[in-house]
Amino acid sequence: MYLRFAVSLAVLGALPMAAADPFAQNRILGRAINLPGVFDRNPDRGPIPDPPLKPEYFRKMKDAGFQSVRLVIRWSSYAATDAPYKIDSDFQRKVDWAVEQCLANKLAVLLDFHYYPLISFTGRETSTEDPKKNRERFLALWTQLEDHYKNSPPQVMFGLLNEPSRQNLGTEGWNALVAETLPIMRRHNPDRTILIQSANGGGFGSLEGLKIPAAERNAIVEVHYYSPGKFTHQQAPWSNDRIYKDILWTGTDEEKKPITDDFAKVAAWAKKNNRPIYLGEFGAYRAADMPSRARWTAFIARTAEQLGMSWAYWGFWRCGFDVFDAQTETFTEPLLKALVP
Ligand code: GLC
């Protein structure tokens, strides 16, 4: 098995780099699934199992029709808190195992950078972090990661940061951080595709303010979509929309219009700026009724596809939006059908 993987990597590595074209890379991401609940878990909850999850789950993702996996990773919880901020080698090995499983199943991989204190959405508004040290640590983590993955095939892509903080970065702060981080990520990875989100949590409304250095051509722009929040996040404990309940989404023209309008604006921005778009997260929390969730999910996925966007559903499991049931080890049919008809 290991030998077969090594051979397949060598073959992939020998292919001419299509990686320079981010539009082609975005088509490789295609229909994706977020994998939370493994590499983003709080270390207080005990060690990550070894292997981290059943290897056959990757085959199940592939067989279900997904083309890539967004690996949700909380690097900051598995790295030293003092310089040079070394990433825990056992954690790194486990992430690499998942990357290998993806590639062996012909699934592309996005290495997502989730829940980084202060500068990305963490679910907590306050933090005791020292901002200067925190930022130095962020850059140090990328210094290590980009070196570590420098020989990976082009199907392995980097996500610069998940859901940049509205409070602590805003638009200007985010643009500055992108400009500062990109040269580090590019040291040994001149041809790797990098995903860059819009400011303020990856919101559609923040695209207009996004500044990616003009010379950076191998970037895909990532946005997230959970509108209307009172439907997708009703009862979700971490959300302001938790106050809502019994909100349906029946797919009327009135319900579709704001969504279609939102997506049209993103598509117009993409065209004007000549950047491909990856809808890196969307989903409706389990408190909503299943027919509504399925209708909304299908509508979002098709709308994105019609506009040439790739997408990643949030998420596989352990997130409250689960499309996979670990008890029965099967996909929840209405949601899977909505995603991959
Ligand atoms: C973001 C958050 C995650 C949350 C999801 C849906 O990915 O990081 O914690 O579950 O959005 O709200």
Number of domain units: 1
Strands in their spatial order, largest beta sheet: 1-2-3-4-5-6-7-8
Number of strands: 10
- CATH fold descriptor: TIM Barrel
Low-confidence stretches: 1-19
* CATH A-level architecture: Alpha-Beta Barrel
- What is bound: which ligands? alpha-D-glucopyranose
Count of runs of 4 or more consecutive helical residues: 11
Q: Given the helix and strand composition, which structural class is it?
A: alpha/beta
Largest sheet, in brief, is: 8 strands, parallel, barrel
Estimate the strand proportion. Answer: 5-15%
* Radius of gyration computed on alpha carbons: 19 Å
Q: Globular, elongated, flat, extended or rod-shaped: what is the shape?
A: globular
Share of helix among residues?
25-40%
Q: What CATH first level would be assigned?
A: Alpha Beta
Secondary-structure topology with pairs:
Elements: H1 2-14, H2 22-29, E1 31-35, H3 56-64, E2 68-73, H4 89-104, E3 108-113, H5 131-148, E4 156-159, H6 170-185, E5 194-197, H7 199-202, E6 219-225, H8 229-232, H9 253-273, E7 277-282, H10 290-306, E8 310-313, E9 324-325, E10 330-331, H11 333-339
Helix pairs in contact: 9-10, 10-11
Residues 114, 121, 123, 163, 281, 314, 319 line the site of alpha-D-glucopyranose (GLC).
